[in-house]
Amino acid sequence: MHTERCVCPDIPRYDLATRVVLVMHHREYPKPTATGPLALEALPNSEIRIHGERDSLLDLSDLATPERRTLLLYPGDDVPVLTRALVESDPRPVTLVVPDGTWRQASRMGRRLPGLGHTGMVRLPEGAPTEWGIRRENHPQGLATFEAIARALGIIESPAVQSGLEELFRLMVRRSLDARGRD
Predict the structure, then answer these.
(1) Alpha-carbon distance 22 to 72, whole Å?
(2) Which among 33, 52, 116, 180 has most CB atoms closer than 10 A?
């Protein structure tokens, strides 16, 4: 993005108990339409893990620690909905694993990535449709990764965190569309 459209000065910082681990395919990471890395810029205790590189196997088993509860954000109808009550049922802080990709890619990642056997799978409750207009979404509940992170943190942490992240997301969308000559 050109300097005058950069959202960097507008990125809020949230020091949360929740740690987000974004899992991205190595081909997705460099794309300017990948929204997950921008979300993590606001979350200093979070990280990106890359998978799919030829000679490097990603293993997430190090996320299984007794002092934290690990949840995988999973786009499937057969897993529990992420609710405040579900979060409060375990007092440990959450490590939220977020697979980055289309609905279909994310569902495969949750089943195939080594080291996630200890995680509880959760899905987002139904909500407003995506505000992302850069990539096409084929699934009715599909969201940009940034939106999914914001909504999950709205439940796990607070609506104020969700609102602040969504404001940054909308700014990024407006500036991206403006850079492409679209309104």
Answers:
(1) 10
(2) 116
DSSP category for residue 11: -
Query: At residue 34, what is the residue type?
Result: A
Residue 132 Ramachandran class (φ > 0 left, ψ -120 to 50 alpha, else beta)? beta
Sequence letter at residue 37: P
Q: Averaged in consecutive runs of 10 residues, what is the pLDDT profile of the chain (183 residues)?
A: 75 96 88 85 95 84 94 88 97 95 72 82 86 55 85 97 94 80 63
Task: Please state whether the predicted TM-score (pTM) of the whole model is above 0.85.
Answer: yes
**Alpha-carbon separation of residue 95 from 4, 17, 41, 63, 183 (angstroms):** 35, 9, 17, 8, 37
67: number of Cβ within 10 Å:
7
CB atoms within 10 A of CB 9: 5
Q: What is the pLDDT of residue 136?
A: 55
Within 10 angstroms of residue 116's Cβ, the number of other Cβ atoms is 22
**Angstrom distance (rounded) from CA 12 to CA 164:** 7
Structure-block tokens of residue 129 = 């449709």
At residue 40, φ and ψ (nearest 5 deg) are -70, -20
